[in-house]
Each structure stands twice: as C-alpha cells, then as structure tokens.
Predict the structure of Glycosyltransferase involved in cell wall bisynthesis.
Amino acid sequence: MSEKRILLASLLKPITDTRLYEKLGISLSKIPGASIHIAGYEAPIPSGAPASVHFHPIFRFQRLSLGRLFAQRDYFRLLQRIRPQLVIVSTHELLLPTLLYQTRYSGVRIVYDIQENYSLNLRAQHNYSRPLKHLLAATVRGIERLSAGSIDHFLLAERSYADEIPFLGGRYTFVENKYKANQQQSFISIPVHLPATDPLRLLYSGTIAEEYGVWEAIELAKQLQTVRPDTKLTIIGYCANSHTLTQLRKICEPLPFVDLIGGGKLVPHQSILQQIQESHIGLLPYRPNASTFRCIPTKLYEYMAHALPILIQENPLWQGIVEGNDAGRSINFSQLNTAALYEDLSTSSFYNEGIPESIYWESEEEELLKAIMSLLAQV
C-alpha cells in the first residue's frame, strides 16, 4: 500500500485530546504505510508520539469570537497543504470546508466522527436563550444534513445516536469512548474499600457545567462533612461558561475542603488520571437531561478502569453498568440521605469480581481499523 494520508480534525478539542489523539490517532497509526495528521486547538505537542503521527495546532481563538470563523479558513489551507486522502471530521463547523476540499480533489473520503448529538445538546441544555438555542440547533442539523450525502462513513461515540440522528443511512460504526489503558497505571488492590482514617477524597472531573452537576457535587461534599469531617472534594476540568466559572470560584473560595483545578483553562488528561488514582469516590451527579440520558459518560469508563467507587445519578442505563459491576451506587443527588449513604459506602466493598474487560478501548480499536481500512482501499 502506498502512503495514505489521514487527517483528523477538531475545531474545539486540543491536539492532545483523548479521543482525537490517544484513541483514534494512535490506533490509526498502526495501519501500515499510513501518515496520521492531527489538527486541533493549540496545545503542547506530546512527547513519545508514534513517528507516523504529525500535529497541527492551528486553532487558537476565543470560543465566541470572529477567530472561530477564520479558523475554518486556516483549516482549509491545511487541507490543501497536506492533501489527505481520508479526512475524519469531529466538529460540524469543519464539514463544509472539508466538502469544498473534496470537490477540488477527487477520490477523497470523508468520515464524520459524531462525538455528540450537537443539535439535541443545544435544544436540551440551557446555555442560550430559547429562540437562540433553537436557531443554533436548526443551523447545526442543517449543515449536517447538507453534508450527509458526501460523507462516506460515520463513527458514533454513543449507540443511542443510531436512533436519534436521521441522516446516517446505515453507514456507521460504533466507536465508543471506552478507556485506553495506560501502561503506567499504578497497581490496584481488589476489592476496594473506603479508607477508615485518611481524608475521604471525592472527585468531580471533566467538563465543569451545571448540567453535569457541579453544584450537586459541592452540596454532597458539604453534607458528607457533617458525618465525616475530613471529606475533601477536588473539581478538575474546564468550564466554558464564564458565568458558571465566576459563580463556582465565588462558592469555592470560603470552602477549604474544595479544591478547584483548571476552571478557566484546559487541564492535561494525565492530570485528571492522576487525580482519579488519588481519589476514593468518583462523582457523576448529572442532572436529568435529554442530551445525556442515553449516553455513557467517558469518565464512567475512566473511573471504573481505576477501580474508583462511583456515585452516579439515577438512570437505568448507568445503573446497570455501575451496580452490575460492583462499581458503586446509583442515587438521586437531589434527595440525599447522607448518613444512610455514608453508612452503606463505608461498610461495602467494590469491584469484587475485578474490573470488567468490556470497558476497555481494544474492542473499539478493532472496529475502527476495520472501517477505515475499508475506506482506504477505495482511494
């Protein structure tokens, strides 16, 4: 096979993004004769990357600025310079420039990596006024529909998207955000118990937002302080909403048991994994919302891979995964009986049968390579 150039592109995710680089990029670098190019938001180029992986940190703009429009121009210029035969697009805003590139160079294959149901997210979440969010949702879905006929294949990060998204036409492969094992992961003793004497460390990691329950995480920590005064909460991740971030800093300031890491800036994934290994309970206090109800949070796989006991919002899908694997408890964060909850957690053991193999990336890598190799054979 002659050299095949594959470009993976995301407008908002950094070039070191877990899915973009650590999962898709490194997995695709295993294809013989393939040259992998990753375009994304500016971030330090990672050390130790495979020789066939090349980074293009071309995006550096504020989320709500004209720079976001100019970024599409920069992306189109990159396409013309690299001349990839296959492009994997992870952001709807990059679809139209990719289609334009396809019209100029015949034989180009396009894959749309759907990491979120963007249209549903805009309608169901409360980041914009009602008229604006419906306008934005319609615009996003319009771009996706317009592009769908020229897209060769879709990668779906969630199984629910096959039912929710109308334009797939059977051209899709499930590539879920399961955990990519870290060879430097520390030894885990199974089964797991909460510490009897050391400070009890709670963790809220990843995207910081009201929809994902950041206020509920703080409230739980406050209440646990009454039954276990050495309880501590670490909030680590990025908060895109400036109003939420300002409010969060104000709330955390008088609370010595709450530690905020990141907030206004992106946090390296390795730093989050380090916090997971140092914590005793992982919190997923998602507020019930149509945009997340049928999705499996990536951090759920991360917590389970490190045998971290989990407290997750009641949800039939999540409850089956968590309680079915002795990984924690499914609770209603808005109706807490903290004393009873702590009694249950402190007298229980977790992961009694070990960490389930089904949470790891290897099965997804196999499906990914099968789909991409089939497309590469056509160029």
Observations:
- The longest helix spans residues 130-148.
- The chain has two domains: 4-178+361-376, 201-359.
